[in-house]
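Please, structure for the following, as tokens.
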Amino acid sequence: MARKTDLRYGTLKYYTESNLIPFEQLDENLTRLYPREAAVERVEIIKSLKKSGLSIAEIRKKIAKQS
């Protein structure tokens, strides 16, 4: 997922922990499974909103309204 979206692993982890990117936890080893199309689309939205100057909190609110 990090390669596909051109994000660092730490950034991807932060976004998932902030509930910005949908994922499923596979097992107790904390392996995360991302629904590929939905997650990639969400990352592109986040990148665009960050580029326009929104904070993570503002992005979270905007995404919550869309869901």
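Residues 2-66 form a domain with the Multidrug-efflux Transporter Regulator; Chain: A; Domain 2 fold (CATH 1.10.1660.10). The chain has four helices and two strands.
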